[in-house]
Amino acid sequence: MRITPKGSFILPVTALVAAGNSGNAATASDCKDSDADERLNIVYIMTDDHTSQAMSCYDKRYINTPNLDRIAERGVRFTNSFVANSLSGPSRACMLTGKHSHKNGFTDNTTCVLDASQPTFPRYLKDSGYETALFGKWHLESLPQGFSRWEIVPGQGDYYNPRFIEMTGDTIVRHGYLTHLITDRSIDWLENERDREKPFCLLIHHKAIHRNWMADTADLELFEDRQFALPENFYDDYAGRRAAGEQEMSIGSAHDMDVIYDLKMYRPEEESRLKSTYEAFVGRMDPEQKARWDEFYNPIIERYYNDKLTGRELAEWKFQRYMKDYLKVVKSLDDNVGRVLDYLEKNDLLKNTLVVYTSDQGFYMGEHGWFDKRFMYEESFRTPLVMMLPEGFDRRGDIGEMVQNIDYAPTFLELAGLDVPSDIQGVSLMPLLRGEHPSDWRETLYYHFYEYPAEHMVKRHYGVRDGRYKLIHFYNDLDQWELYDLESDPTEMNNIFGKPGTEEVTRSMMRKLRQAQEQYDDPIRYAYPIKD
Question: What is the pLDDT of residues 433-450, one digit of tens each?
Fold first, then answer.
């Protein structure tokens, strides 16, 4: 073991990991151009599980996010932004490749390893002369390729004193809070490492706001004086929706939302399913961090075990603790987005840089009684998307066209002046950023979720959504259809599939589903129960 600057510890990793990175490293000095390349820069900031309900330019009920709102206020806010597969790794693969999961090969987090040698937008940009960098969460099991510089957290990453895998194959430990450290590393690259004669594409990928929502010790007291209103469908009985009733992501369930791991109610003598994982996370803290953590949580732990809550009282107490912990992590994230924006502004980079903020999917804040994501229902199917536009783009305000995370890759390629390869399934958002409203813009979105059986036990399903209706087919170990009128039933509580009077709508949505599966060449095809 050797010590690096700033107290980082270097640990050897396997030769296989090191070999997987061979030939990818390139320094700025290796490839200087004689004339500056004046193409536009890209800063792409992506978080994990940040839902639009917790971003004040979308929803003001829970938290104020002034720095995220800055992006929307000086640019555009997409009001109909969706993902293709609401899960971390698959969503990232869709974003990188511009293709649905069945085409990029990364369908779920439990069985897949991304073939990082396949074409991705960072690879195309790097090959065309861009400096490309990635700092933070990768979560695709392989090592990144197509980047001039990268430094990633193993797996999900650790909130405190986290490990990072470097391009050298070493694993280092950096002291501090992960959201700050990823931001530090990104700004340091912008300031000290990139080739300033080249345009750049910087991917800042945060672990925040992923489970188990461990806040920075500086933010532990936030929101403790707040009492959050329960969503109107918190006590959903899942009538007519079998798959929704068989998941394992209920806040009220002791198995699903763990009071020790998720809510930090730790006592050495108490047991829970994920206790050891929580002990490992907290065990990464230094004495000062741990002392501050214990000072805050110990009184809450004492009250919790003394009160012995049960039933609805316990479920609602868990909801309040969950909301507070989640929002504290959002606060730190927003502060760090502000740091990036301030750097870009101070260094006169905003005029020629597209700044994008999004999440890998949405998340449930108690709707249907849930946390997590996975379902095609709106809260997790949707994802926030805001962009601050460079000079020459006059579009401001809301963009209402339906967009999806497979659209990011072709957008960045077109922005860089590159042709979009024909096998990319997304469509470039550039016409929308230029203020156009293409008459042939998509009217239907396709979705496919694969990860079952697995954590949270959400059934496999696929479906289509248009401007008003959503059709979902749950398959594999059951065969159930759901149809929603999002105009009259925006919280998706009333499955109207098979109800009298819905025949024409059902036929129309079945046609759209068939067309989408053919368009995207999805091999999962089932016999549709209603014929044209």
Answer: 999 999 999 999 999 999
